[in-house]
Design brief:
Elements lengths: L2 H4 L23 E5 L21 H11 L3 E5 L9 H9 L4 E5 L7 H10 L1 E7 L11 H8 L5 E5 L5 H7 L7 E3 L9 H17 L2 E4 L14 H13 L3 E2 L16 H11 L3 H16 L3
Parallel strand pairs: 1-2, 2-3, 3-4, 4-5, 5-6, 6-7, 7-8
Helix pairs in contact: 6-7, 7-8, 8-9
Length: 290
């Protein structure tokens, strides 16, 4: 084991479902953000974490128990440019899954066409983890994938949000922001960050994933996440996406309960019409139109 590997701590194992959410998810719910890991799959070096094993079979069971109809599998940083595990999952469940890959910015059009036929619908930029693509690669990638109708998925820091519209101006493809852009939930700065997300959704074809509150606060009783979700749903319900973030990587001192996470989102968005957009319709249109 290299020194770099030793610096990548092992994630906590996910919690098993012990109950279902008090209210069922809307029929047709799409989980737009989850990862899978398999024992023996080569890990990238350097990397930010070492995953606990959670396979596609595990997610199929998890999603089936919760009534999740379909999912969008996102390439994790620990596999770098090696998308084989993701592509195997898409091949096994072609009607149920779509994928977001990480590829070299100079990838040939023929390879992008092959990935598209396998169910890939986007490329991920990740400025927060070792092994992720930098934001500088976004414009080159956007030019390569725009003709395929893919999205550009961004896992970025909140201070990068104000510049995204300018950085990616004219790219002619949807942009998806992971985990509310990791904005801090402190009440004194919350409105400024919510306004930044709204401006981005107004200025470009941008969607925001209302996911993973534990990445924004250590206090799971913090109402900030629900308040942000409610505020964005009031103005941009057609631009929000829900995802489980299963199996909750990069956690070492506390693992969330999936039923509680879903209930938090349901409490924030209690209008059935709005909930249907966020849990079902927006993702259907963005990822499963073909």
């Amino acid at each position: 084991m290299s020194a770099a590997d030793m610096e990548a701590p092992l994630c906590l194992p996910r919690r098993q479902l012990t109950r279902l959410p008090r209210a069922a998810l809307p029929q047709g719910t799409v989980d737009t953000h989850f990862h899978v890991f398999r024992a023996g799959a080569p890990l990238n070096t350097p990397r930010s974490y070492t995953p606990d094993i959670a396979t596609i079979a595990d997610w199929i069971k998890f999603s089936g128990n919760l009534g999740i109809a379909r999912g969008v599998l996102v390439q994790p940083s620990v596999y770098g440019l090696d998308n084989r595990l993701l592509l195997e999952a898409l091949a096994a469940y072609p009607d149920r899954l779509r994928g977001i890959v990480v590829i070299d910015p100079e990838t040939a059009k023929a390879e992008i066409d092959r990935l598209d036929r396998l169910g890939v619908r986007g490329v991920r930029i990740n400025t927060r983890n070792k092994g992720g693509l930098p934001l500088a690669a976004a414009r080159t990638l956007a030019e390569s994938i725009a003709a395929f109708g893919w999205s550009l998925q961004l896992q970025i820091n909140p201070e990068q949000l104000p510049d995204i519209a300018t950085t990616l101006a004219g790219t002619r493809l949807p942009i998806v922001i992971d985990h509310l852009g990791f904005i801090p939930l402190a009440i004194e700065t919350r409105s400024r960050h919510v306004d930044a997300l709204r401006r981005l959704m107004d200025a470009a074809d941008t969607y925001v994933k209302v996911t993973a509150p534990y990445r924004l606060t250590k206090d799971m009783n913090d109402q900030g996440f629900a308040e942000v979700a409610r505020a964005l749903a009031a103005s941009h319900a057609e631009r929000l996406l829900w995802g489980s973030d299963w199996p909750h990587t990069e956690l070492w001192d506390g693992m969330p309960d999936d039923a509680e996470l879903i209930e938090t989102m349901q409490a924030a968005v209690d209008d059935p019409t709005v909930a249907d957009k966020i849990f079902v319709r927006n993702a259907e249109a963005l990822f499963f139109g073909r």
